[in-house]
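Subject: for your reference before the review

Hello V.,

The reviewers asked for a structural picture of the protein, and I figured it would be easier to keep everything in one thread rather than splitting it across files. Below is the amino acid sequence we used in the manuscript, unchanged from the supplementary table.
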Amino acid sequence: MDVAATYFNEVGLLPIILVVVGLGLLIVEIVVPGFGIPGLLGILSSTAGIILWSRNLSEAVILFTILIMILVIVFFVVARSAQKGRISKSRVILKESVDTEAGYSSSLGQNELIGKAGIAASEMRPAGIGIFDGKRIDVVSDGQFIPKDSSIIINRVEGRRIVVSIKND
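And here is what came back from the structure prediction:
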């Protein structure tokens, strides 16, 4: 009887199936955008299979190393395909830019508010509400107290933060 057949009879079929299924689940996790469940199940299945397959610690380390090398190779193949290959032509990869020039915006075009004058609808210590062109807007001062009904002006916009100061007439 040859060495491979003896080794196979000694190891059994279950560890090999666990490793192959685990590797398949890990590849699915790499390729398919998802929740992480296939990856977790793949790690558990592969680990259980390698533990059952190995006769000693050095053999387990070698099997884990081989498994990780296979996954790294698959990851690079998938990443390259996502850039230039078949995956880049699929609906999984976003091809369009979602910027303001294309008509998308994550905020209400608040940079257009810079320089607008309004009234403080509440006291600002430093946060409060200002009324600009009849619209209530959450604003903040640069740290100074601004009394209610004061004339204010928008100095700058920092993301969703609109900074105002007292308007000097």
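For the response letter, the relevant points are probably these. The beta strands are 117-120, 127-132, 135-141, 151-158, 161-166. The chain has a mean pLDDT of 82.

Happy to draft the paragraph if you're swamped.

O.
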